[in-house]
Design a protein that fits this description.
The protein is α/β, with parallel strands linked by helices. It folds into four domains: 1-33, no CATH class; 47-166, Tetrapyrrole methylase, N-terminal domain (Cobalt-precorrin-4 Transmethylase, domain 1, 3-Layer(aba) Sandwich), CATH 3.40.1010.10; 170-275, Methyltransferase, Cobalt-precorrin-4 Transmethylase, Domain 2; 288-334. 43% of the residues lie in helices and 15% in strands. It has 13 helices and ten strands. Helix 8 links the parallel strand 6 (184-189) and strand 7 (210-215). The chain is elongated. The chain binds S-adenosylmethionine. The site of S-adenosylmethionine has 23 residues, from helix 7, strand 7, strand 8 and strand 10. S-adenosylmethionine is lined by residues 66-67, 136, 138-140, 143-145, 168-170, 214-215, 239-244, 270-272.
Amino acid sequence: MLARMNGSRLTAAAKLQAQTIGLSLAFVPQGRKSIMSKEREINGQVAGSKSRVSLSPGLYLISTPIGNSRDITLRALDVLAGADVLYAEDTRVTAKLLTLHGLTRPLHSYREHNAARIEDRILAELADGKVVGLVSDAGTPLISDPGARLVRAAIDGGHHVTAVPGPSAVTTALALAGLPVENFTFAGFLSSSANERRREIARLSLVPTTLLFFESPNRLAATLADLVTILGDRPAAIARELTKLHEELRRAPLSVLAAHYESSGAPRGEVVIVVGPPGQADPQVQTGAALDDRILDELARRPVKDAAAIVAGQLGLPRRVVYARALELKATQAK
Ligand code: SAM
């Protein structure tokens, strides 16, 4: 994945970039300087220089790398350089990004907790014809990051809203998981409350697409256990530390992943869970929450044996599988 360098000279920026992504300097691609020269020609200006780029007024949603600092786009650098003002989730993180590229721009905080207060000021700046950039700590703004209400307010205010697309952990994990990509559902972070998390997973059990979740490493094992219980043993993948030095894709059925993280403990770094759509695994176990819902429905009206027989007949499942699950649910209800 990484080109090996044979003794070419490193610019200060290249050294800093290599350090930022935890690479040994021996792995910085060769000829960075000449690549930069070409970038400058193509772009008609010096990307990352202090010279300002002329941009139309409006709100720019600027995607930034999710790990590897070299994944910044030339246009992102242009807009970072050309914005009148930048708003960032964490100004320290974005200040580092700007320093890395030799940029200095007015930088303010825009977070969920101050969004309501800051928004009026941003809307006034937009009304004033300013170029306003919104950046999150990593990846695409708004994707489990602040910005949605600002975009809505800017649209409602009749302002120009545009995006500088780039990396996101969602599309990167989806592309690498080896699961169906034609349709997918990004479900963001599940609730940290176990009961609410199970309800959320249950609501997704009939969605006929690949599912993607962001998750904290500390909750990964518990979430995988809930996923396998409620969705059944679907094929899945854990995408960890994407684009970083220790990038890892672990592709296996949910039960195997759940057992792995249960015994290994919380992994280091950031993770995305990708789960294949229903219909890919053993039909006896894939109905998950749909099965539970139907069993519970029948259990409310009749004895376990009858409820299991009716549901098994309706869903075309073996009676013993449904009966075993009905007994479990009945026992849970009794607690
Ligand atoms: N807006 C970002 C994006 O577009 O990727 C996502 C921000 S969200 C607050 C952070 C979550 O994204 C992490 O908890 C993790 O689930 C996922 N994530 C971000 N970077 C990642 C990476 N390099 N590898 C794996 N997951 C990552």
